[in-house]
C-alpha cells in the first residue's frame, strides 16, 4: 500500500499561515462593520430632553417686540412686557411690576431675535403656584393616571417617525409641562437606545410580550401614541395638521382634530396648541374610564402567572381530579363483576417541582408568543420565565414543572414540537 504524503515544508506552512491571517482580518472587518452599523443607529442628531415637570401656572405664546438703549435693555423690557401680557391672559388682577416679578418663576424662550437695540421674541411665562395660585386659581383636582409611556409619531412626506430623528412634534411634547395634567407621562428623551426601542414599528406591534418588555424598561403601565400628520401645500407655504390621540398596544382611537398654520414659522405654535388639546383628550378619556392600562399587560415581562390566578388553577385541577375519582368509584359500585376498563387519564400524583431550561426558535414575535402560550398550557407547568429574547434566533425560557424532564419532553412532543433532550434542558422547534 502506497502512503499518501501530506504536503509540508516552509512554503506550504507559510501559505497556511497566510490564509489564517486573511481569515482573521476579514472576521475583524465584519465585526467592525457591525459595530459601526449599530453605532450609526443610536448616535447622531437624536434626543430632546423634556422640560422639568412642575405645577407652576404656565402661559405660552406671548409675542413681544420692544426697543431699548442696547440689546440687554431691550431683552429686559421684553421679558417684563411678556410677564404683564401673560398675567393678563391668565386672568390676574392689576398689580405693580414689583409684585408681578415676585410671582414669576421662569421665562421660557420659545423663539427670539436680538438686535443692537431691538428684541423680538415669542416667550412663555411660568408663575409660581404657591404665590400666585390663590389669585389665579388652584391646581386641578382629580385622580392621576397610571404611568403612561409617550410615543409621539409624526407623519410627513410619506415617512412615519417617532424617535428615530429629532422632529418638531417630539420637540413640542418635550417642551410641554405636564405638571398640572392628570396624565402621568413617561417622556423618553429619544437619545441612545430609545431610537431603536421606540420607533414607529414598535407603535404598530401587537405582541404583548414585546410591549411588556418595553414598558418594564421605562417603568410604565401602558402607552400613549399621539399622531401628527403634517401636510405641506408647498415648500414654505401653509401647513395642515391632522392630530389623532391613540393609546395602548392595539392603538385604540380616542379622538382626532385638524389645525392650520400659515407657514413654517407658525408650525411650533400650532404643535404647541395641538399638544394641549391632545392632553385634554387623554384627560377626558381618563375621566370617562377609557384610559385604563390594558389587562393583558399586567402579567409583567417575566412571564410569571399571578399567584391568585395560579391558586385558582390549582383549585380547578383539584376539583376535576375529585370528580374523576367519584365517577370511577360509582362505575365500580354499579358493576363489580365486570369492571369496565378505565379509559380516562389517571389522576397524576403530586410530583416534585423541578426547574428546566427550554431553548426555542423565535424567527418573529408571533412565533415567540405562540411558543410561550403552548408551553404554559402543558399540564404540570407551574411557572414560565423568559431569560433571553432573540428575535430571528433562539430564545431561552425557564420553566417550573411538576415532574421529570422526560415527562415534560413527552408532553411537548404530543403538542407537535420536535424536542431534543439535554442535561436538565430541552430544545424545541416546530
Defining key terms:
430 residues; alpha/beta; seven-stranded mixed β-sheet; 12 helices; 15 strands; 26% strand; elongated; disordered N terminus
Biggest sheet character: 7 strands, mixed
What's the number of extended β-strand segments?
15
Global geometry = elongated
- Strand percent estimate: 25-35%
Secondary structural class: alpha/beta
Question: How are the elements arranged and paired?
Answer:
Elements: H1 10-42, E1 57-67, H2 71-89, H3 97-103, E2 104-114, E3 118-127, H4 129-136, E4 148-150, E5 153-156, E6 159-161, H5 168-175, E7 185-186, H6 194-197, H7 200-203, H8 208-218, E8 222-232, E9 239-247, E10 252-261, H9 267-287, H10 307-334, E11 353-362, H11 365-376, E12 381-388, E13 393-402, H12 405-414, E14 418-421, E15 425-429
Parallel strand pairs: 4-7, 4-8, 5-8, 11-15
Antiparallel strand pairs: 1-3, 2-3, 5-6, 8-9, 9-10, 11-13, 12-13, 14-15
Amino acid at each position: 500500500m502506497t502512503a499518501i504524503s501530506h504536503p509540508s515544508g516552509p512554503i506550504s506552512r507559510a501559505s497556511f499561515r497566510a490564509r489564517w491571517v486573511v481569515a482573521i482580518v476579514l472576521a475583524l472587518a465584519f465585526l467592525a462593520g457591525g459595530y459601526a452599523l449599530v453605532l450609526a443607529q443610536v448616535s447622531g442628531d437624536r434626543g430632546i430632553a423634556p422640560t422639568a415637570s412642575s405645577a407652576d401656572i404656565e402661559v405660552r405664546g406671548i409675542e413681544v417686540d420692544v426697543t431699548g438703549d442696547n440689546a440687554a435693555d431691550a431683552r429686559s423690557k421684553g421679558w417684563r412686557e411678556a410677564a404683564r401680557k401673560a398675567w393678563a391672559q391668565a386672568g390676574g388682577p392689576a398689580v405693580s411690576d414689583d409684585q408681578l416679578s415676585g410671582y414669576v418663576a421662569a421665562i421660557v424662550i420659545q423663539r427670539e431675535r436680538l438686535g443692537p437695540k431691538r428684541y423680538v421674541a415669542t416667550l412663555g411665562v411660568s408663575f409660581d403656584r404657591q404665590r400666585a395660585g390663590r389669585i389665579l386659581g388652584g391646581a386641578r383636582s382629580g385622580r392621576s393616571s397610571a404611568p403612561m409611556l409617550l410615543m409621539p409619531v409624526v407623519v410627513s412626506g410619506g415617512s412615519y417617525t417617532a424617535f428615530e430623528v429629532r422632529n418638531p412634534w417630539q420637540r413640542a411634547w418635550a417642551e410641554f409641562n405636564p405638571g398640572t395634567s392628570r396624565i402621568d407621562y413617561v417622556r423618553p428623551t429619544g437619545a441612545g437606545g430609545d431610537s431603536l426601542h421606540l420607533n414607529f414599528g414598535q407603535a404598530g406591534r401587537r405582541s404583548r410580550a414585546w410591549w411588556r418588555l418595553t414598558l418594564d424598561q421605562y417603568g410604565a403601565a401602558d402607552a400613549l401614541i399621539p399622531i401628527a400628520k403634517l401636510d405641506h401645500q408647498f415648500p414654505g407655504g401653509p401647513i395642515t395638521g391632522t392630530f389623532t390621540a391613540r393609546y395602548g398596544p392595539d392603538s385604540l382611537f380616542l379622538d382626532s382634530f385638524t389645525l392650520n398654520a400659515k407657514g413654517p414659522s407658525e408650525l411650533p405654535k400650532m404643535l404647541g396648541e395641538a399638544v394641549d388639546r391632545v392632553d385634554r383628550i387623554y384627560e377626558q378619556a381618563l375621566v370617562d374610564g377609557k384610559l385604563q392600562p390594558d389587562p393583558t399587560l399586567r402579567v409583567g415581562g417575566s412571564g410569571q402567572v399571578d399567584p391568585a390566578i395560579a391558586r385558582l388553577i390549582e383549585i380547578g385541577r383539584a376539583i376535576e381530579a375529585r370528580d374523576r375519582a367519584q365517577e370511577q368509584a360509582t362505575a365500580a359500585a354499579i358493576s363489580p363483576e365486570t369492571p369496565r376498563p378505565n379509559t380516562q387519564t389517571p389522576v397524576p400524583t403530586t410530583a416534585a417541582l423541578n426547574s428546566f431550561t427550554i431553548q426555542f426558535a423565535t424567527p418573529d414575535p408571533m412565533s415567540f408568543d405562540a411558543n410561550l402560550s403552548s408551553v404554559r398550557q402543558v399540564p404540570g407547568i407551574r411557572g414560565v420565565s423568559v431569560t433571553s429574547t432573540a428575535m430571528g434566533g433562539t430564545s431561552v425560557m425557564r420553566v417550573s414543572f411538576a415532574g421529570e424532564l422526560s415527562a415534560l419532553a413527552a408532553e411537548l412532543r404530543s403538542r407537535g414540537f420536535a424536542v431534543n433532550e439535554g442535561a436538565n434542558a430541552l430544545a424545541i422547534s416546530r
